[in-house]
């Protein structure tokens, strides 16, 4: 039987009134086989003890394990996925380890994060369908530091440095992936500069024949909707006031030229920056007309050490860019699209969940990595349709990551035959983001996370 939903503002809340809060698994890895050439993780026992205490206080049944081999860890995860969670609110899984390129390390080898999250998808773990599945990763490895561009507080003694490399998003609804959490209550971004900022839109419909990419019919509607959403809406939303520059079917060299020009501009009197790509995508790249462009190459231009006038300001990237064949199976009845529209809907699949390096980035993806997205050849893509509608209705009042969660909900309720679409976003914002009229402002708090939840989750 479906859970009853509470409503908080525009978004329904998850039902957190079951008999039990749920299971929290903690996998703590301090020591590793010498062949892996990984350092001992000193201090991780303290992290584990703190997590056990806090999650027990929240009512979770906590199970914790130290230095498990990969097979033993996967066996415990499979056991958890096969358990009956009918009378619980949610599920939590925490990894304290090293990480590398979408993997976490067990004692003896690395484990693919996708293999872990796949066990808890709705079609595999039916008793957790519609319930929050929360994964927390303190899992890092590397030697690339994030350069400080302003003085930072804190004692540097007895601190070891890691670089994160496990930012892999889940495929499926009701997942929340947590990689780094802000420690203090923080303010809102200051959005009272003279200008709202620049919004670039790169719309790619036609491609060179040698790329073997289909024409993206319907993408012109997406571009038109986005331009209207940022510039020409009602008087209240016009106060957002982005300066929109839109480009069609540029080659790679021209895209990079426009992006570099934007990065080199003076944004001192702007609140933020937005960049939108409507194209095909593959393996962390988006396609220009003639060849693909590395997303990391683009976002790197706007890091604080390269684009100083955007330091401390939101940098928002929206990617409607898909290619592939994997489907997201509907596991519960969904609000259907008109059957007459089936033949006018094109399906694609995402391969773009690549996160930027640096603070104050927000990456918005039309669909979780590896799964199908839909685009109506007349009305445009589902994601852009719902994003534009939500921007028009709540863009000046709702906190922006809350707005994106509402978009998650709207898109997830669409269904074409037996397939559905689940968007996601990845946030490295360090404050709350509002596009209020500029004379208004208050102080708020925040965290840093990656989300494909379509509702609020309140754990009390």
Overview of this protein structure:
The chain has 460 residues and is of the alpha/beta class. It has nine helices and 24 strands. The chain has helices at residues 44-57, 70-82, 113-118, 219-231, 235-238, 252-264, 295-300, 382-394, 400-412, and strands at 6-8, 11-13, 20-28, 61-66, 88-97, 99-100, 103-105, 110-112, 133-139, 175-178, 195-203, 243-248, 270-282, 285-287, 292-294, 315-322, 328-329, 345-349, 361-365, 372-376, 380-381, 419-420, 424-427, 450-451. The strands form five sheets. Strands 3, 4, 5, 9, 10, 11, 12, 13, 14, 15, 16, 19, 23 and 24 form a 14-stranded mixed sheet that branches. A three-stranded antiparallel sheet has the order 6-7-8. It is globular and about 50 Å long.
Unreliable stretches: 150-157, 167-171, 181-185, 229-238, 330-343, 349-357, 440-448
Q: Number of helical runs? A: 9
Radius of gyration: 22 Å
User: Main beta sheet, described?
Assistant: 14 strands, mixed
Question: How many distinct beta strands?
Answer: 24
Shape: globular
Topology, element by element:
Blueprint: E1 6-8, E2 11-13, E3 20-28, H1 44-57, E4 61-66, H2 70-82, E5 88-97, E6 99-100, E7 103-105, E8 110-112, H3 113-118, E9 133-139, E10 175-178, E11 195-203, H4 219-231, H5 235-238, E12 243-248, H6 252-264, E13 270-282, E14 285-287, E15 292-294, H7 295-300, E16 315-322, E17 328-329, E18 345-349, E19 361-365, E20 372-376, E21 380-381, H8 382-394, H9 400-412, E22 419-420, E23 424-427, E24 450-451
Parallel strand pairs: 3-4, 3-5, 5-9, 9-10, 11-12, 11-13, 13-16, 16-19
Antiparallel strand pairs: 1-2, 6-7, 7-8, 10-24, 13-14, 14-15, 17-22, 18-20, 19-23, 20-21, 23-24
Helix pairs in contact: 4-8, 8-9
């Amino acid at each position: 039987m479906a859970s009853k939903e509470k409503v908080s503002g525009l978004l329904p809340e998850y039902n957190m009134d079951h008999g039990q809060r749920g299971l929290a698994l903690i996998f703590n890895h301090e020591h590793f086989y010498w062949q892996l050439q990984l350092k001992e993780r000193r201090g991780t026992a303290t992290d584990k003890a703190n997590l056990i205490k806090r999650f027990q206080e929240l009512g979770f049944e906590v199970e914790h394990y130290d230095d498990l081999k990969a097979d033993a860890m996967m066996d415990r995860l499979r056991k958890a996925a096969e358990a009956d969670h009918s009378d619980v609110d949610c599920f939590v899984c925490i990894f304290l380890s090293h990480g590398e390129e979408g993997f976490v390390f067990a004692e003896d080898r690395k484990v693919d994060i996708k293999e872990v999250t796949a066990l808890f998808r709705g079609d595999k773990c039916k008793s957790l369908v519609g319930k929050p599945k929360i994964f927390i990763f303190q899992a890092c490895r590397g030697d690339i530091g994030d350069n400080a561009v302003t003085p930072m507080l804190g004692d540097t003694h007895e601190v070891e440095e890691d670089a994160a490399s496990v930012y892999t998003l889940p495929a499926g609804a009701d997942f929340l992936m947590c990689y780094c959490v802000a420690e203090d209550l923080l303010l809102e971004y200051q959005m009272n500069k003279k200008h709202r900022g620049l919004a670039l839109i790169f719309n790619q419909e036609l491609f060179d024949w040698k790329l073997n990419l289909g024409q993206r019919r319907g993408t012109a509607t997406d571009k038109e909707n986005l331009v209207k959403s940022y510039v020409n809406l009602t008087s209240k939303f016009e106060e957002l006031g982005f300066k929109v520059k839109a480009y069609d079917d540029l080659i790679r060299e021209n895209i990079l030229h426009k992006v570099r020009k934007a990065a080199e501009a003076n944004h001192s009197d702007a609140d933020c920056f937005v960049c939108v790509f409507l194209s095909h995508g593959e393996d962390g790249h988006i396609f220009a007309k003639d060849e693909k462009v590395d997303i990391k190459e683009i976002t790197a231009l706007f890091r604080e050490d390269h684009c100083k006038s955007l330091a401390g300001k939101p940098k928002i990237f929206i990617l409607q860019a898909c290619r592939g064949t994997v489907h997201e199976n509907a596991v519960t009845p969904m609000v259907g699209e008109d059957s007459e529209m089936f033949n006018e809907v094109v399906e694609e699949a995402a391969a773009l969940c690549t996160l930027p390096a640096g603070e104050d980035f927000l990456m918005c993806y039309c669909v979780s990595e590896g799964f199908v997205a839909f685009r109506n050849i007349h009305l445009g893509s589902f994601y852009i349709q719902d994003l534009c509608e939500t921007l028009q209705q709540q863009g000046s009042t709702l906190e922006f990551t809350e707005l994106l969660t509402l978009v998650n909900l709207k898109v997830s309720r669409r269904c074409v035959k037996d397939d559905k679409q689940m968007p996601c976003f990845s946030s490295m914002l360090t404050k709350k983001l509002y596009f209020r009229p500029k004379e208004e402002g208050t102080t708020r708090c925040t965290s840093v996370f990656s989300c494909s939840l379509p509702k609020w989750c309140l754990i009390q």
